[in-house]
Design brief:
With 148 residues, the chain is an all-alpha fold. The chain has one domain (2-147). It has helices at residues 2-23, 28-33, 38-46, 49-72, 82-97, 100-109, 116-147. Helix 1 packs antiparallel against helix 4, helix 1 crosses helix 7 and helix 4 (49-72) packs across helix 5.
Length: 148
């Protein structure tokens, strides 16, 4: 089951990378819809080298995370430091995704004022993080059995 979670998380990260790369070329309206920060929207409006660097860095990191997920799922060859890297990615994603609790609080305080897509945007990292953490645990169990 954990291998399937890692595979799903890996493929999702690769899809996110493609989405991030495409989003920059749809303009500021698309960036605003997905709650991009103002500085990113200014960069998208201006275009040029800084935008290419930003998109390259964001998409490149998502590709790296996705490839490690696929490696942990044994869909591609094992990568160096597989378990620690997956554990780090899982922890960071989970910590980032926990912010959805803040939205629940705000939605309770201000009913109808929090867009539903914001819940989705903040829930995805939480789900991905938990999938990576489950995969890291399974990788540990596999390595412990192999050592015996």
């Amino acid at each position: 089951m954990s291998r399937k979670l890692l595979a799903a998380a890996g493929w999702t990260n690769l899809a996110i990378a493609a989405f991030q790369a495409g989003l920059a070329f749809f303009g500021t309206a698309a960036a605003r819809y997905f709650f991009a920060p103002r500085w990113a929207m200014r960069m998208i409006a201006a275009g040029g080298a800084p935008l290419i660097l930003l998109v390259g860095a964001a998409a490149g990191l998502s590709v790296l995370v996705g490839v490690y997920g696929l490696s942990g799922a044994r869909l591609i060859r094992p990568l160096p430091a597989l378990r620690p890297v997956i554990l780090i990615f899982g922890s960071l994603y989970t910590l980032w995704g926990i912010r959805v609790a803040e939205l629940v609080w705000l939605a309770w305080q201000y009913p109808g004022r929090i867009p539903l897509r914001l819940f989705a945007i903040r829930t995805v990292p939480l789900v991905l993080g938990l999938a990576y953490l489950a995969g890291a645990r399974a990788l540990r169990a596999t390595s412990v059995r192999a050592a015996r």
